[in-house]
Amino acid sequence: MDLGAFSVSLAVRDLGASREFYERLGFTVFGGNADESWLMLRNGDRVIGLFQGMFERNILTFNPGWDQQARPVGEFTDVRELQRRLKEAGAEPTSEVDESGSGPGSFVLVDPDGNPVLVDQHV
C-alpha cells in the first residue's frame, strides 16, 4: 500500500527557535507561513513541518498523490480507497474522509502508542 510522501509534523512551542535548530541540522524552509505559525522544511528527501499552537502531539503525515518533493505524481491510490482498505483490515479512523467525494481529503488513525497518523491528500 503506497501512502505517498512522508513527513513528520512537529508540535513546537517556539517556531523561531525550532526553525533555527533544524536549520543547523541542514534543513531549509520551502513552504508554510511563519505569520500563521507553521513552516515546512526539507533536507534532501526528508521533510518536517513545524506547527506552533496548532495541535498537541507530533503527527506522522502521509500525502497520497505527492512525491517527497511535494510534486503531484501521475498514478496514486486515492485517500478514500486507502481509508476503505484500512478499515477492511480492521483500522478505526478517528476522523474520516467522505468516501463519496473526490479530490483533496484526509483521515486520521491513532497508533497503539497514541501517535496520530494523518493521511492527507492535497490533489
Write the layout of secondary structure elements.
Blueprint: E1 5-12, H1 15-24, E2 28-33, E3 38-43, E4 46-52, E5 59-63, H2 79-88, E6 105-110, E7 116-121
Parallel strand pairs: 1-4, 5-7
Antiparallel strand pairs: 1-5, 2-3, 3-4, 6-7
Class by SSE composition:
alpha/beta
Strand count:
7
CATH structural class: Alpha Beta
Task: Summarize the main sheet.
Answer: 7 strands, mixed
Helix content: 10-25%
Question: Beta-strand level of the residues, as a percent range?
Answer: 35-45%
Describe the structure.
- The chain has 123 residues and is an alpha/beta fold.
- It has a single domain, classed as 2,3-Dihydroxybiphenyl 1,2-Dioxygenase, domain 1 (Roll).
- It has helices at 15-24, 79-88; strands at 5-12, 28-33, 38-43, 46-52, 59-63, 105-110, 116-121.
- A seven-stranded mixed sheet has the order 2-3-4-1-5-7-6, with helices on one face.
- The protein is globular and about 45 Å long.
- 23% of the residues are buried.
Key features of this structure:
single chain, 123 residues, alpha/beta, 2,3-Dihydroxybiphenyl 1,2-Dioxygenase, domain 1, 7-stranded mixed beta sheet, 2 helices, 16% helix, globular
Task: State the gist of this model.
The chain has 123 residues and is α/β, with parallel strands linked by helices. The chain contains two helices and seven strands.
